[in-house]
Write a structure and sequence with these properties.
By secondary structure, the chain is of the alpha+beta class. It contains 3 helices and 9 strands, in the order E-E-H-E-E-E-E-H-E-E-E-H. The strands form 2 sheets. It has a 7-stranded antiparallel β-sheet with strand order 2-1-3-4-6-8-7, covered by helices on one side. The chain starts with 6 loop residues before the first strand and ends with a helix.
Length: about 170
Amino acid sequence: MKKYGVSAYVEVIDNKSGNRNVYTYREDRPNVFTEYFFEESYHSFYFSCYPFDDEKSSIPFGAFYTPEIAPFTIEGNGGYETESTREQIYLRQIDKRPDKNIKKFYSALQQKLKTLPGIQNGCVMGKYEYKNRYFLPSSKIIIPNNPHNKNIKGTWEDYYLNYQYNK
């Protein structure tokens, strides 16, 4: 990430209060960052080379989608894991005309993911093949990333498994 001037961020949502917080990856505390992926409040993650003023200052919800910051940002969804399931990770460049550094980083990240032992990418849903979804095979059920649909009652895992097996 340093080579491209990119930082990583994770967004969590407090389900009771609705508060959204964005946390920045810190090299001196990588475990703190990855622990968010196992929490129910985990929402999504981002890679961005946008030069925020102060890494310790709070980043407001929705900032990565603004016209000023979107060209410098990659959005990641999925990766949430429970005892029985693991979500695929879905990556996308937010802006159609991304900054050259984030574009190079995204290309390098995809190449690196393809060389990791055991990692699989792609997924077929209906007639469509999605090539930018990644996962490690597991004894757990691999499910698509959560679309964060507000019409779903209960957890995404329960909704998806009930839908799949009750067709």
